[in-house]
């Protein structure tokens, strides 16, 4: 279950960033900017397309690997899980788009992703209990969307709780 969270995080960051940087590398971002669409529409098209890819891959992973191979129970609402996964992918894609704006090529995006994703994953509570971390790390990780997504995912998939108990993590 923690592996799927790492993969969702990596893909949500890298896919939109790579798509935007590819446009910059090929020189087509200027063509997009002079077209009749707004920059917001350009970014939303990249993010929404990649979010749909991530949701499809997550569904495939749950149906073909997590449940039958590893026997991971899905006790809560699958629909709620996918809605919140889409929200998480959307927010993490914003970090990827920011990385794409400050880099010039895909190699630089890969290096920036190491600097962003590694601390997010290692300090989010996936690998070690969040409560066992020093207070300064806990307060720093309050800015990471993955920290709250871990709580949401474990709450829905493993504990079967609903939005009534997870509203603060979702917010």
Layout of helices and strands:
Elements: H1 2-26, H2 29-34, H3 39-66, H4 78-102, H5 106-122, H6 135-140, H7 145-159, H8 163-170
Helix pairs in contact: 1-3, 1-4, 1-5, 3-4, 4-7
Folded structure, characterized:
With 171 residues, the protein is mainly α. It has helices spanning 2-26, 29-34, 39-66, 78-102, 106-122, 135-140, 145-159, 163-170. Helix 1 (2-26) packs antiparallel against helix 5 (106-122) and helix 4 (78-102) runs antiparallel to helix 7 (145-159). The longest helix has 28 residues, at 39-66. The mean pLDDT is 90.
User: Distance between termini?
Assistant: 22 Å
Helix and strand succession? HHHHHHHH
Shape: globular
- Count of separate DSSP helical elements: 8
What Rg, in angstroms, do the CA atoms define? 17 Å
Query: How large a portion of the residues is in β-strands, by DSSP E?
Result: under 5%
Q: Kindly state the mean pLDDT as a whole number?
A: 90
Number of strands: 0
Helix and strand composition category: mainly alpha
Helix coverage percent of residues?
over 70%
Low-confidence stretches: none
Strand count, sense and barrel status of the largest sheet are: none
Characteristic terms for this protein:
single chain, globular, mainly alpha, 76% helix, 171 residues
Q: How would you summarize this macromolecular structure in one to three sentences?
A:
76% of the residues lie in helices and 0% in strands.
């Amino acid at each position: 279950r923690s592996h799927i969270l790492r993969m969702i995080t990596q893909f949500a960051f890298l896919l939109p960033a790579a798509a935007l940087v590819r446009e910059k590398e090929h020189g087509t971002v200027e063509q997009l900017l002079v077209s009749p669409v707004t920059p917001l529409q350009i970014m939303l098209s990249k993010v929404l397309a990649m979010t749909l890819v991530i949701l499809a891959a997550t569904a495939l992973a749950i149906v073909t690997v997590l449940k039958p191979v590893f026997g991971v129970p899905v006790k809560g609402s699958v629909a709620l899980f996918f809605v919140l996964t889409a929200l998480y992918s959307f927010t993490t894609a914003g970090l990827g788009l920011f990385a794409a704006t400050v880099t010039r090529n895909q190699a630089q995006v890969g290096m920036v992703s190491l600097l962003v994703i590694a601390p997010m994953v290692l300090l989010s509570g996936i690998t070690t209990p969040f409560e066992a971390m020093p207070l300064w790390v806990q307060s720093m990780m309050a800015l990471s969307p993955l920290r709250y997504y871990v709580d949401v995912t474990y709450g829905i998939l493993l504990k079967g709780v609903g939005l009534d108990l997870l509203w603060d993590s979702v917010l």
